[in-house]
Amino acid sequence: MAVQQNKLPELDIDPFSTEFLTDPYPFHAQMRDAGPVVWLPKYEIYAMARFDEVDASLRDWETYSSAAGGGLTNFNKEEPWRKPSIILEADPPLHTRTRGVLNKILNRAAIEKLRAGFETIADEVVEQIVQKGTFDGIKELAEVFPLRVFPDAVGLRKDGRENLLPYGNMAFNAFGPRNALFEESFKKANEVMGWILAQCSRDALSPEGFGAQIYAAADDGDISEEEAGLLVRSLLTAGLDTTVYGIANALFSFASFPDQWQVLRNDPKLIRGAFDEVIRLQSPVQTFFRTTTRDVDVDGITIPKNNKVILFLASGNRDPRKWENPDEFDIQRRAVGHVGFGAGIHICVGQMIARLESEVILNALLKRVRHIEFNGSPERKLNNTLRGFNSLPLKIFE
C-alpha cells in the first residue's frame, strides 16, 4: 500500500501488544506528541490520539464510516466473524431506523422505572460485602450487580447467564487482530454463541423486558424480524461488559484517590459527575475504528479513501490539550464532553442504563462505606478493546 509520508509521523507501536494493553498511557502520550495523525505500520492503519481529532472523527460519520466495521477488519475487503451490528456497525439510513427503535425503548422514563428494583438488589450486594469487610471488587460486586439486574431488564431467562461475560469478551477482542487474546477468548465460541443467539429469539424473551419491546417494534413494521434479533444481540454485547468495567474502574479510582470518596460522601449530588470522571480517566472502551469514505485532509496529511483509522478514546480523554491535570481523578471536574461513550450519532445507546446502575451501586456504597482501600495488588484483564481487571482486592470500612 502506498503511504503518503509527507509530515506523517510513523511509530513502531503495536496497540494490541501485552506491553501496550498493560500500560497504554506512555504510548498515548507518544502518539499525541507525534502529531494529530500517525501511521502504525504493523497493521497499516492511521491513528488519532488527540481529543480534538478523535471527537471530530466520531461526529463525522459521513467521512469516518462505521459500516465497514468498528474494528481492525475492513468489511469492504474481508468477511466479518459474525453478522455486523446494525447499530454499532451501520450508518444512516439503516442506523437512523434501528437507533430510533432503541431510543424509543430505552427512554428516560423507561430507565427510571428500573430504579427501585435496582436499588433493592444493590443494597443486597453491598450488605454482603460489608459483612465480609474484604472482597474482590470484580467477582463480588462489579460483575455480580450488573449480571443480576441487566439480564432481567432485557428479559433473559435465568439459566445460562454465565455465557454473557465470555461472549462480551469475545466480541470486544474481535475488534482487534487475531492475536492470542482473540484466540483464547474464542475457544468456547460455538457453545457461547449458540446460547446467545438462542436468547435473541422472540420466544426466549419474557414479555415485559426490553427484548420483547424490540420485537413489538417489528410487529409495528419499524424493523424486520431478523433485525429485531440483531438489536437484542446488540443490547447483550454493549449493555453488560462496559458497565461491569465502568463500575470496577470506579472502585479502582476511589481506592486510588481515597480523598475523592470523602468528597463524594460530603456531597452525594456529585455522583453522576463522578461517574463521568471515572469514564474519562479510566475509559472502559479504549479504542474504536472507523473507515474513510473519501480522501480526507487532516492537518495537511491526506488519509486515503477506504483506510482504517483507529481512534484512541482513552488517549483523548487524557489529552492535556483538553483537560487540566488529566491524569488526576477529580470528581468536581466538569468531565462532560469526554469521549468514553463515543460521540455523534453512534454515542453509546445503553449509556443511560450504565449510568443508572453505577449511580445506584455507588449510592448503596455511600450509605454503608466510610473508606475504600486496596487489600492487595489488582490484576489486569487484557482485552483488545476494553480496559479493566480480572481481580480487584479491596477492603472497606463502615
Provide a concise account of the structure shown:
By secondary structure, the protein is of the alpha+beta class. It has helices spanning 18-22, 25-34, 51-59, 94-105, 108-112, 115-132, 138-142, 144-154, 164-173, 180-185, 189-199, 210-219, 225-238, 241-256, 258-266, 271-281, 313-316, 351-368; strands spanning 38-40, 45-48, 64-65, 134-136, 287-292, 296-298, 301-303, 308-312, 371-374, 379-382, 387-391, 393-397.
List keywords for this structure.
398 residues, alpha+beta, Cytochrome p450, three-stranded antiparallel beta sheet, 46% helix, globular
Description of the molecule:
- The chain has 398 residues and is of the alpha+beta class.
- The protein has one domain: Cytochrome p450 (Orthogonal Bundle).
- Helices cover 46% and strands 12% of the residues.
- It contains 18 helices and 12 strands.
- The chain has helices spanning 18-22, 25-34, 51-59, 94-105, 108-112, 115-132, 138-142, 144-154, 164-173, 180-185, 189-199, 210-219, 225-238, 241-256, 258-266, 271-281, 313-316, 351-368, and strands spanning 38-40, 45-48, 64-65, 134-136, 287-292, 296-298, 301-303, 308-312, 371-374, 379-382, 387-391, 393-397.
- The strands form 4 sheets. A 5-stranded mixed sheet has the order 1-2-8-5-3, sandwiched between helices. Strands 4-12-9 form a 3-stranded antiparallel sheet. It has a two-stranded antiparallel sheet with strand order 6-7.
- The radius of gyration is 21 Å and the shape is globular.
- The termini are far apart.
- The model has no long low-confidence stretch (mean pLDDT 94).
